[in-house]
Write a structure and sequence with these properties.
Strand content: under 5%
Radius of gyration: 21 Å
Shape: globular
Number of strands: 2
Strand order of the largest sheet: 1-2
């Protein structure tokens, strides 16, 4: 298990290098995102099939995050990641019918996220909507009537504010004990990291510590940053955060290029990934998101290889150019 944990990080780097050296055209990048979206659709289909076989309800509504095969945070996480993907594909040159299908798919994912009753999922939904609305309202290419249409969710929330607020309050009240335990686990993880600041207590060691402390068979602190600190030390946490900052730098390097419309979707991906890390350790083991990061590097390399004006003095560009010439 410990070796597998360490190999996971090697695998992440390998994905980025291989994809950056293999994909040079935006059309290929675009097809990769379609493939990822198909995976998201398959997952949400399985979620609803699983709920249909054993329906459960919460506050009188279907609860799709409470089945034998899925939990609320994982369903909310992968469903939320589908939304920036849809945003990215929608902005490409596709038929109106395909755009309509994407809108319907987005509504299905939004409803699924809402019915997971995941507080983190709800938060991510609000953040993505705010980011999307900000980018759309600033766009000069989108007509005013379409901008007004995108404000409808705000009026919907205001109209049903009492019902929505009551549901949120009930959800928060119903998870007080769980929230208290999560805070205890996170505190214990960081205390463990303070005792072993450089290398931590060892890969996946928190599961054994958690078993002794909370009497659970398998446990993580439900916080990616606390888990990395506890298992592999603050040095690893610093490197992890550095990687995320590098990804953000690459996203903003798309400004003043012909692919600047990808900044919003890529930021949406990154915000979901970073934010969900505060409430679950799932992001540490999620390989799909690192494939998205690899596609981000490929996007930047595509622009550099086509003389977009971005600085070409990067390691990944040199690898890409060398492979391209071969």
């Amino acid at each position: 298990n410990a070796f597998g944990y360490l190999f996971t990080w090697f695998w992440y780097g390998l994905i980025i290098i291989i994809v950056s050296r293999s994909i040079f055209e935006y059309s290929t990048i675009y097809r990769c995102f379609i493939f990822i979206l198909l995976g998201n659709i398959l997952m949400v289909s399985l979620v609803w099939i699983s709920w249909y076989e054993a329906p459960s309800y919460y506050f009188g509504l279907p609860s799709v995050g409470r089945t034998d095969y899925f939990n609320s945070n994982s369903v909310a996480y992968y469903s939320t990641l589908a939304l920036p993907n849809i945003w990215l594909i929608y902005q490409s040159k596709i038929r109106k019918l395909h755009k309509f299908i994407l809108i319907v798919a987005a509504l299905v994912f939004v409803i699924t996220i809402a019915l997971t009753f995941s507080k983190a999922g709800w938060g991510m939904l609000v953040i993505l909507y705010a980011l999307f609305l900000y980018k759309v309202l600033l766009s000069k290419r989108i007509k005013a009537i379409k901008k007004l249409f995108l404000l409808l969710p705000i009026f919907f929330v205001i109209f049903y504010s009492f019902t929505i607020v009551g549901t949120i309050e009930g959800r928060v009240d119903g998870s007080k004990s769980s929230n208290t335990q999560r805070v205890e686990m996170i505190n214990h993880a960081f205390n463990n990291a303070i005792e072993n600041p450089i290398l931590g207590s060892g890969p996946k060691s928190f599961s054994y510590i958690g078993h002794d402390l909370f009497n659970w068979k398998s446990i993580d602190p439900h916080n990616a940053y606390a888990q990395i600190s506890s298992d592999t030390g603050f040095l690893s946490l610093a490197l992890y955060i550095l990687f995320l900052l590098i990804f953000m730098k690459y996203i903003f390097s798309l400004r003043r290029t012909k692919l600047n419309f990808l900044i919003g979707p890529y930021l949406g991906y990154l915000f979901v990934y970073i934010s969900m890390g505060f409430v679950t350790g799932l992001t540490v083991y999620d390989k799909s998101m690192w494939f998205v990061f690899a596609l981000l590097f490929s996007t930047v390399q595509y622009l550099k290889l086509h003389s977009s004006g971005i600085s070409k003095k990067t390691f990944f560009y040199k690898l890409s150019k060398e492979n391209h010439e071969i």
